[in-house]
Each structure stands twice: as C-alpha cells, then as structure tokens.
Amino acid sequence: MANPKTVSSEVRAIALRSGIDEIRNDRASGAIKQTLRAAKLLVECAEYAPADLPEFASALIAAQPATGPLYNLATVAMRSPDVAAACREFVESMEHNTARVAEKAAALVSDGSTVMTHSFSSTMLTVFREASWQGKRFAVICPESRPICEGVAMAASLGMAGIAASVIADAAIYRMLPEVQLVLVGADALSPRGIFNKTGTALLALAARELRVPVYALCSSDKFLPPSYDPPPETRKDPCELLERELPHVTVVNYHFDVTPLDYFSGIVTEDGTLTLAQLRDRLLRGAEAPPGPGPALAGPVEHQEQQRCEAVSC
Questions:
Q1: What are phi and psi of 213, to 5 degrees?
Q2: What is the phi/psi pair of residue 147, to 5°?
Q3: Of 25, 122, 212, 256, which residue has the fewest beta carbons closer than 10 angstroms?
Q4: Regarding beta strands 182-185 and 215-218, do their DSSP bridges make them parallel or antiparallel, or are they unpaired?
Q5: Is the pLDDT confidence value at 297 over 60?
C-alpha cells in the first residue's frame, strides 16, 4: 500500500508544476495577476518542499522571464528566511505602488483631450476610470493590438465604464496620432534596454515622438529589472494566430512583445511621480528600486510568454 505522505507529496509536486505551466501558457492575465499566482505557488513550495525553492523560483522566472514583478518576487522569496512573509509584503507593496501610479497618471489626462493607449492594462484602465471620476471628459483611441486584440477588450472595458473609446487598426496609428494630445502605455518590465510591452509599443512611441506627441509609460518600481538581469529573446508564438493555414514557402513570424528604448518616452510614471530619463537612469544604475540579481540558480535560457493581458478577444 502506498504511503499517504508520499502520495500527498507527489500530488503537491504535480500541482506546483501545473501552476508553473499555467503561468507559462497564460496569455490573458496581466503582470499583477500572474505575480499574485506566483506568490501563492512560492508559499506552497516553501511550506511543502523548501529544498526545491531555488529550482522552483528559477522555473517561475523561466515561465515569464520579462515580467518584472514576477522576477523580483521570485528573487526576494528565494533569499528570504520567511517566504510567506516576504511574498505577502511584496504583494502589498506592489498593489500599493500600482494604485499610486494610476493616481499620478490620471493627472496627465486633461479635460477635453484625446489619449491613445496600446494593448490592455488593468493599471491603465484604472487611470482612465480615475480621470473620469474626477469629472474629466476625454476620449481614448485603442489600436486593436493584434494578434490577440487586447485593444478591443480595452475599448470594451472603457465603454462599459462610460468612457468614449474607439478601436483602430494597428497600421492606422500614425494616421490618427495628429488627433491625439497624449500617449499612455503600460509596461511588463523596465530595464536599461527600455520598456518591455506588447508588440507595437515601440512603433507607437516612435511615431508619437516624430509628431511631438508626449508619450509616458506607467511602470511601478516593482517592475524595474536589475542591471544584472537581461531577459532572453522572445520565442516565436503560434503561427495560427496570424494565418489559419500553412501557405507554401511562407514563414509566419509572430512575436507578442517588443522593447521600446527609453529615449522614446517623455517620462516614466512611477509611484513616486513622473521620472525624467536622467532620473530613471540614475535609479537603474543605483539599483535602488530592485532586489539584487539572482545567483546561478536563476540562470539559463527561458521563454518569454504573454504577460500583462486581458481575456483574449477574437479580431
């Protein structure tokens, strides 16, 4: 007869591995939700398999290597003598920081203005709701954000909140920017290389800079990656997202994310206010807002999957 304790340990191990797989394959949830799930998994691992924690933390990072708060949470948890307390404190700080970022970003939205955003961000949605609650009347332009069309879901969420929103093709961004007074985008992570976010963010920021439209990224400090860590290149995503069937001699190149150089932004909105690029670079160099980089246990090639997302919407 099988030992109940052994069976229980095996079941927990399977559940933990399944949790990592869910995070790896999740294209719908945002960075905050994924980090909350990761925190629960880390606490469970520390309780039931503490010797496996370094390997488990490494696997979590590998599941979403360019999700800043998940990386920082796993690093902090691995180095803490009390994982449950460390995860709880990190999550509380992350939620507090996110609320402060939204509050400060809402101040950038002017009454009577038109704002363009990109993809879906729960923080961005909070920004627009906050600005609306303040009595401001404005419109939001949402590029569809193919191939998953998170921009469609963002527009739908805004409409349900009573905020005027329109959906445009990604290719129409430049065409519509002359009608825009402000561009606000979210962030999955920030490093000296730039802002990691949905593919198309870099093109939007570049076009806005060319047309002299101010561009701000919303990024709390828990998304800052330490200089010692550079996320690996993203692997190609499912070709069926772009083409329903194979075509002879045609290769589908499907990426979900890009990195926007910091020089493209007018500023970065953090919980401490809007940082200039000089202030931001100083903080990144000092590493004041991120935990130390991981040791050897967190090294190795990993795949960059979907991070900060809403429920997938068909285009």
A1: -100, 125
A2: -90, -5
A3: 212
A4: parallel
A5: no
Contacts of 249 (CB under 8 A, 6+ apart): none
- In the chain the first and final C-alpha atoms are separated, in Å, by 54
pLDDT in tens, 2-39: 444 444 677 777 889 899 999 988 876 778 889 999 99
Compute the distance between CA of residue 227 and CA of residue 191 in angstroms, rounded to an integer: 7
- The DSSP 8-state label assigned to residue 306 in this structure reads -
Alpha helices in 177-294 (DSSP H): 201-210, 277-286
**Number of residues in the chain:** 315
Confirm whether 282 is a catalytic residue. no
How far is Cα of residue 132 from the mean position of the Cα atoms in its chain?
24
Provide CB contacts within 8 A for 234, sequence distance 6+. 66, 255, 256, 257, 303, 304
CATH number at residue 86: 1.20.120.420
Same domain, 18 and 33: yes
Residue 18, classed as helix, strand or coil, is helix
Residues 17, 107 within the same domain? no
Q: Does the pLDDT value for residue 295 go beyond 60? A: no
Same domain, 45 and 90: yes
- Whether residue 41 sits in one domain with residue 27: yes
Q: Measured in whole angstroms, how far is the alpha carbon of residue 287 from the centre of its chain?
A: 20
Q: Average the pLDDT over each of 74-83, 182-191, 227-236 and give the range with the smallest value.
A: 227-236
Within-domain flag for 64: yes
The two structure tokens encoding residue 95: 């939620």
- CA separation, residue 38 to residues 23, 32, 146, 181, 222 (Å): 8, 10, 27, 38, 14
pTM of the model: 0.86
Contact between residue 208 and residue 173 where contact means Cβ atoms under 8 Å apart: no
- Asked whether 293 and 71 are in contact (CB, 8 A), the reply is no
In the DSSP assignment, the letter for residue 1 is -
Predicted confidence (pLDDT) per residue in 234-259, tens digit: 989 899 999 999 999 999 999 999 99
